Amino acid sequence: MPLITGTLRSLEQQEFKDFEVLVVDGASTDGTLTVLHEAARKLPLKIVSEPDQSLADGFAKGLRRATGEIVGMLCADERYYPDTLAQIAQWFSAEPEAITCGGKVDFVDKNGSLVDSHLTPPFNLSAHLACELVPSNLTSFFNRRLIGQDFYYDPHVSTCPDYEFWARLGFRFPTSAFVRYDASLAQAYRTRDSMSFRAESFRQLCQDKLKHLNNLLAKGYVKGDVEAVRRRASAGIHMWAAEQLSSIQHDHPDILAYCAAAVQFDGSYDRINHFIETSGRAHCDPSTGVVTRTVPDRPGSQSCVAGQFDEMVCHPHWAGAAVLSVAPLTVRTSSDAWGYALELPLPDNFRNGYQKGGQYWARLEVQTIEGSAGIGRLSSEGQNLIGEQIIREGDGRTEVFIPLPSEVTSSVILRSGGIPSSIVRIHQAQIVLDSVTETGAIAPIVLAQVSG
Fold it and tell me: Which has the higher per-residue pLDDT, 19 or 327?
């Protein structure tokens, strides 16, 4: 409660009526059961309400009770569109040998406004094992009849049961059996309430994915080079944690530690180097397996102001981006979820007068009034933002530091941070110099890997 009311309403509105709803409730005491029993007057509900051991245990109970030929999974902060089940029935009719059919998920903010849409890339087993892609359970429906004995979640590992489930399907079925369509099937809230948006959850999530991986390998699913699969997938799981943490809390101490752990598993994995280079704060030596911090998270107390950003450009080809006011500088970001919105070129006197022997930073005081914004340094080839930080509505007036390397020729860029047409205010934009820098090797994070 109260999220589940919207979920139930989306089921009541389905154009396709031949379905059952199995509700697995963890012994709620917040009024959820009252709402469910009221909804049972309009929906074919079967309710199980009892304590469970974990998220995985709850999902496992539901799948064991499913009797329909096609099964989907819907959580309390998610909603189907009125034609979702009708669309699914049509797709499986056209693809009777598909083990799963799926589509796009639309992300909405706390007000229900669309902020982004995502279509998972085509399923690939090795990419899934390494968490290079994370299939959307919300917008995937499964052919229970064809999956047969593999239609279950492992309840013995507390989180990420979908990682293990999709892996088993990938080992058994060809990639052609995983069908997806470029059509929206459901909405999900993009908020910090989800476990996957909380920084403190990632050690558990990462450790559980490693447990699932090693359990699968111990059971003989891989017939080739098992250790090669283990190394690449383990490195990928750690990099997934680093990437997700970076999007939630850019200066979290575990981010580079996950990268250092990934190198221990597979130093040749180019995903590691790409991420570290994009962070702008570290260097990886694959020959030694050492990740070295080259730039601290922020300047020290001895830093001083070395210049000001005196030019700010909003390019006409950045659709929807606009300067709304000059004092204080207020910008509306692009109408694209990650589109560029404002360029802050480095002043000419800075480029010409760069001093050796210290670390320069772009220092900005930023406040996101609506939505979410990303701020980083444009890479020399213009393809990536280096050291990007995400500032969200509700973060308040935030100090942002972007490291500037020697011989910088690029600009600082403001862009949409996953939510189009966000409103951002820049109170200050300076260049600071720190004469003291702290560097050193990063100790890899160590997680227990249990198999059996």
Answer: 19
